[in-house]
Amino acid sequence: MYEFNYQKVESVSAAVAALKNADDGKFLAGGQTMLPTMKHRLASPSDVIDLSGIAELKGIKASADTVTIGAMTTHAEVAASPEVQKAIPALAGLAGNIGDPAVRNRGTLGGSIANNDPAADYPAAVIALGATVKTDRREIAGDDFFTGMFETALEEDEIIVSVSFPVPRAAAYMKFENPASRYAIVGVFVAETSDGIRIGVTGATPCAHRGLRLEAALAGKLDSAALDSVELPVDKMNSDIHASAEYRAHLVKVMAKRAVDACN
């Protein structure tokens, strides 16, 4: 690890100011990706600005229609939250199966979606539930947030404050996970919302995306048999040591069918 300046701030405005004053500063959320990257000397920020002391970025608030989760809320807190378990049990279940206990107790919702790892779980939920990402300066629709591999709509000095998830009529998340890391080789989140059935897919392609072909096949009905005839573009799928593109295309349909069945 290269030498760097460590700063722990207590407000969003202080974090933004610290980043602007740094030569090459980076925000630190849970650190589950950033710190290993630094340890392997693949990144060398001049300043690391720790967001864990900002109280306004933490906590969970639920209403009849929405669950709003602070960006620095950990996966373990989301999984254990009675409010999330009652309103969107699929989201609580997703959070409870991220990594291992150490990861769940340090990793955060905001850090996960800001990093946008192609195999992360939360992006599928953000897309399927039609969530809204609130930053220190604007609101970004979930459909517009993830723009490419490890890329998002965030500006360099923009901080996620919270994510608001509309409460669905029904929802389920199914993933085929790497047995060591529990990252999603393929993960599919299905939600029956006020706008119809929405599907978010992660792990299959370089960036989490909305499963429009799957949604069209369902035609507003939670009938998994309707997905049998769907053909997914193999050339768009990831291929690596864990799974070929053809296998991932197959897994998307299998996980989607399981999620649809779980919604019923």
| CATH architecture label of the largest domain | 2-Layer Sandwich
The major beta sheet can be summarized as: 5 strands, antiparallel
Shape: globular
Strand content: 25-35%
Unreliable residue runs: none
Ordered list of secondary-structure elements with their pairings:
Layout: E1 5-8, H1 12-21, E2 25-28, H2 34-39, E3 47-50, E4 60-62, E5 66-70, H3 75-80, H4 82-87, H5 89-96, H6 101-106, H7 109-115, H8 122-128, E6 132-135, E7 139-141, H9 142-145, E8 146-148, E9 151-152, E10 160-166, E11 170-177, E12 184-193, E13 196-202, E14 209-210, H10 212-218, H11 245-263
Parallel strand pairs: 1-3, 2-3
Antiparallel strand pairs: 4-5, 5-10, 6-7, 6-10, 8-9, 11-12, 12-13, 13-14
What does this protein look like?
By secondary structure, the protein is an alpha+beta fold. The protein has 2 domains: 5-50, 2-Layer Sandwich (Uridine Diphospho-n-acetylenolpyruvylglucosamine Reductase, domain 2), CATH 3.30.43.10; 58-263, Uridine Diphospho-n-acetylenolpyruvylglucosamine Reductase, domain 3. The protein has 11 helices and 14 strands. Strands 4-5-10-6-7 form a 5-stranded antiparallel beta sheet. It has a 4-stranded antiparallel beta sheet with strand order 11-12-13-14, with helices on both faces. Strands 1-3-2 form a 3-stranded parallel beta sheet, covered by helices on one side. It is globular, with a radius of gyration of 18 Å. The relative contact order is 0.12. The mean pLDDT is 97.
